[in-house]
Each structure stands twice: as C-alpha cells, then as structure tokens.
C-alpha cells in the first residue's frame, strides 16, 4: 500500500510516522521550501503525551520542551488567583502531566522520527489535481509529474488545497468573531501555565522552553482588519495591557515583531465524511478548532496515529478509512462544536460564567477519553 501525505505539519508527520512504524509506504510532500513552521506554541497535556507515547516520541518531546509540574492557575485579569488546576495524569508514571513546547521543537521531533523510519519528505512541492485511474488515485504535481497512490491524505491545514480539489462542496472555514494575538517572549522563571479571564476576552501564559514563554490573547475582532508588521508591538502590548500576573510582568518584553502573530479564528468541520474516492482529510483540513480547549495539534496527531493503526489493521483503503471515520468523526466534531460554543460565550460574557466552566470541564474530560 502506497500513501501520499500532503502537508508536513503535526497531522501529516504523525500519519507518515505511524505508517512507517508499521511497515507501510508513506511519502510526504510539503509546499514550504524548508522545515519552517507556522502556528502557535503549545502546551502538550497528558492526553497529547499519551498519543505521542504511542508514536514512540513522548520522551523526545519532554526533552525538547519543558515539563510543567506546578498546578495551572486560573486568574482574574489583574492576576488575582481564582483556582488552581491539576490536570489528570493519563500516561505512564515517568511522564509529566503537561509539557510546554515550541512548535518548531515538536515539528523537529516528528520530522526527525519520520526520517529515522525512512519516510521520504519532499519540500517545495504541491499538487494541483487528483484523478482516479483504475484502482489507484493519481496526484498531479505542480511541476507536471503524475504519480499513482493507493491513498492521498490531505493534511495541509485549514486552507487545504486537497480539500478544495477533492471536496469542492465541503464547508469552508468561517470567522467566529474572535482574533488571537500570539507572542513569544524571553522568560527564565519557573515553568507556568496561567490562564486569565477578562470581560469578553481571555489570555494565557505558557512556559515553552528554558528561556521562552508564549502569551496568547483572545479578543473580539474584525476579520477584515489588516495590520502592518511594524505596528505589531504597539498593538500587541495594547491587547495584553489589561492583564496582570505573569502576562503583565512580560509586557516590556514584547519588543520583536517577528515573534508576534495576529490572526482571526476560523473553525471548520467537514461533514458528513472526510473520505472520498481514495482521498482522506485529516487534521485542520477536516476539523479546525478554536484554541479554547488547547487540543488542535493534539487532535491532528491523534488522526495520524489512528490512520496508521487502521491502515495496518485492515490492509485496504476503503475498510481502513471507514474504521478511521468511526473512531474520529464524533470526537473531532465534539471538539469543534465545543470550542465554537466557548468562543461565542466568551465574546458575549462580561466575565466567565458557570456555563463556560462546565462546558470547558466536560470538554477536557471527553478529550481525555481513550482514542
């Protein structure tokens, strides 16, 4: 069985790794010309580490990131403590409950593991068409090449080209009303996971390495608003200015526009299926969530693991894809629907409500269930 994975993000690399570990032939193509990564930094919770452990890379992720052993803190905007959060432990005893990690570090762990298992990863490559040819599916590349595969996996993100080609009638990402500021700052204090609540907004502080922290802020916003990079520092500081605690202490460290990202939240759920005629969507191409449950990358990695398991178990694409959908659709649909609900509640509420807390708790409990 020969599989083409389009996209070298968490979903695509995890899928290729899971296949290679089971003796299946997987090739990855990536539009970017190098190993550069795009996206937010991460807090890998225990459920995520459980999946990474099944891919045999959890220890490498712990080494590449920084364990967060202190309880998480939920605070008012001014830094006043509301509650401490002790995440459940779902992994083997010697793994931490959570790990802060830079996206590039996670990418390197998955990328290097793929290469160690013989996965071919081709950069600067895109597909422009997909065609059926007898019992195989053909990928037409931008340089004119045509190659036959048993399965093409679209793991190319929220603006997936594979989805556009193979699922032209699928739903598209839709602005949910919030924007997010993401900033990396120097930090050498104790590892922290702090969450802050403000009127119609939320923010967080996560230690992601020995010398770096990641700040994020969710606000009501205008999708059409465009900012110049030269304005990022002033605008980001203004967004974070209402918060105290570890965020307030970091305001003066927001100085480098290259360490700042500003984007609109555009979730999406492809229904009723992510499989059609030899093409399967996974990760954000199939189910893009908002950050409210901190599980976007985790769900993508789960997709990759489950796909590898089912292809190995069934030995043919149709049966494996059907089994994959049975294991993944309800879980991922729940995550999309729950995060959208939390985003809208956050926008509408002057302060966190019991309903928000209940929905968040129930969401994290559901995502802690075995996959």
UniProtKB/TrEMBL annotation:
Keywords: Monooxygenase, Oxidoreductase. Residues 347-371 are annotated as: Disordered. It comes from the Bacteria. Residues 2-322 form the FAD-binding domain. Residues 347-360 have a biased composition (Polar residues). The keyword Secreted does not apply. It holds the Pfam family FAD_binding_3. The keyword Oxidoreductase applies. GO terms for molecular function: FAD binding; monooxygenase activity. This is FAD-dependent oxidoreductase. It comes from Caballeronia novacaledonica.
